Amino acid sequence: PTSLHGKVAFIQGGSRGIGAAIAQRLARDGAAVALTYSQSAQAAEALVSAIEAAGGRAVAIKADSANAEAIQGAISQTVETFGRLDILVNNAGVLAIAPIEEFNLDDLDRTLAINVRSVVVASQAAARHLGDGGRIINIGSTNAERMPFGGGAVYAMSKSALVGLTKGLARDLGPRGITVNNVQPGPVDTEMNPDSGEFADALKQLMALPRYGKAEEIAAFVSFLASAEAGYITGASHLIDGGFSA
Ligand code: NDP
Domain named Ketoreductase: which ranges (predicted)? Predict the structure, then answer.
C-alpha cells in the first residue's frame, strides 16, 4: 500500500487515539506525516519513532489547537520540513458532558475553539499550500446525526458545525481540485471513550453492530479518502459508526 507515496499529511491532534492511528496509516501508505499535540509529548515522540522505525517519515509539533497562531505556525513548519502539503486531517477534539443546567461556559468556549474554530483556522492556512488533488478530512461524529443521551448538546453542536463547514469548504476549494470530507465515527475505543467505560454497554445496545470500533478502522477510511481513488467524493459527511445512527 503506497498510494500516498510522495504526499505530505498534516494531522491536527495526532498523538493519541484515532489521530495516532491515522498518522500511522498514512505513513504506512507512503505519506510523510506531521502530527500536532498539546499535552502528550511523550506519546507523540514515541509515535514518530515507531513510524521512522517502520521506514516512514514523521515529525511531531507542539501546537495547541485552541491557539490559531500555533496552528498556522505548525502548518508553515510542516511545509518547511517536507517541502509541500497535500492532506490536512482535522482530528483534535474534546468532549465535555454535563446537563445544560450545569454546563460550564468555559467548556463551551473550549469545545468550540478546539472542535470547530481550529478546523477553520487549519483549513485556511492549509489552503494556501494545497494543490490539485489536495485533501481536507475532518473528524466529526455520529453525534451530529444522533445524540441519544442528555448532556451532549454542546458536543453534538460542535460536530454538527463540521457538516456545514465541510459543504461550504468543498465549494470554496473544488475549483482548485481539492476535496473536503467529514468522517463521522461511532464509538471508537480510545482514552476519550474507552470500551471499558461506564457508557460502553449502553452505547453498544444502540448499535446495529454491537461493538466498539477500532481506531485503525477509522484510519483505513481516512486513507481511502486521502487517496487519488476518492477524487470524486467531496462536501460529504460519512458515517462509520457500526450502525449507531441507523
Ligand atoms: P483522544 O482524547 O483519545 O485523543 C485526542 C487527540 O487530540 C490527542 O492526540 C490529543 O493530543 C489531541 N488534542 C486534544 N486537544 C488538543 C488541543 N487543544 N491541541 C492539539 N491537540 C489536541 O480522542 P479520540 O481519539 O477518541 O478522538 C479523536 C477525534 O475523534 C475527536 O475529534 C473526537 O471528537 C472524534 N470522535 C471520537 C469518537 C470516539 O468514540 N472515540 C467518536 C466520534 C468522534 P494531546 O493529548 O497532546 O492534547
Answer: 7-186
